Amino acid sequence: MSATFGLPIEARIQGKISSTDIPAVVMGKISKSGDMSFYSNGPSRWDRDGDITPQNIFNVASMTKALTSVAVLQLVEQGQVALDESLDQHLPEMSKRLILNQDNQIIEPQNSITLRHLLTHTAGFGYWFTSPQLGRWNQLKTEINWMENYQPRLFESGSSFMYGTNIDWVGRLVEKISGIDLEQYFRQCISGPLGMDSTWYNVPDELEHLVVGSSYRDPDNGTIVKKEYQKMSPSKDFNGGGGLSSSPEDYGQFLACMLNKGTLNGVQVLEESTFDLLNSPQLDNFKTIHRHVDTEDVDTKPRGDKDFFFDSYDNWTLAWAYEENSVVRPRGTAYWAGFFNTYFTIDFENEFALVYMTQILPFNDMNSYNLFTSFERIVYDSLD
What we know:
By secondary structure, the chain is of the alpha+beta class. It is built from 11 helices and 16 strands.
């Protein structure tokens, strides 16, 4: 793939990469035509020679969610499920889950959960890093004498926003309706047709050599600790909200397809009208509310004008965040990320997407996120 930026922008990007302590990273710009330009630095694994490339495979964590949204919108398109019907019959084990309100009172849910609630993270499910209550769940469940073998929902469906395990339930719905697991569904209906042959929950043995090494930042002294490589354990339980592995080049194919409203190189995964529905802002009464949780898994230290990833002022579509207040991105730009500091944006106005992949914890690591936003700003500067 030929670089389209020219030497000046390439030199600026490589300068930013070499000035950080992120040990290995790949970042790229994807055009609407599917052309891709990548920039990378570092080894693919710490114990061997060989530079990291756009073909290397990363755990993209919550960047799985976008594919799961496409999958279930395919089923909506086919008339097999509706956005606003009750899912009580499809997923009774989900519907009966009790709610723990802000006063730590256990209450019976009054409203059904719909697919729209799940896709917009308004069904009441959270994560340990988005819910203060779930962040201290082991202690709290004893205090309130919680007897169930699951974590509660946090509010009535449709009444607030909380980023959480909602899309895991969407994955269960896709499996139940289609009769196959998510690995098979993605291969048959999304990643396979788009030629994303390095995108898997269980990476095939013949691709194992492409899987990259990981690291974490020591919370005490800020240094990078490179972890010993361990092959991922195979799984038969596939979450719609995370767990997928992909390469920058593969995910770039998916982003290019989204730039073209569901079609790429003659392959259609969504009709244009369905894509427009998927990409439309959904939150009318509140925005993407993010609640601070004190955890070592997410870096929330102040860091100047670039701030941190979570934004309580944007909207949400049926698949990703919808930009409404950036000084860099146009309104309506799509974006989201994965827990190991992978990021994407889709700028429909300027007709390009960006992908950034590394494997470092904690999420929102200051240096990694600043490298991504620096890359993004250089790209926008080059448009002038």
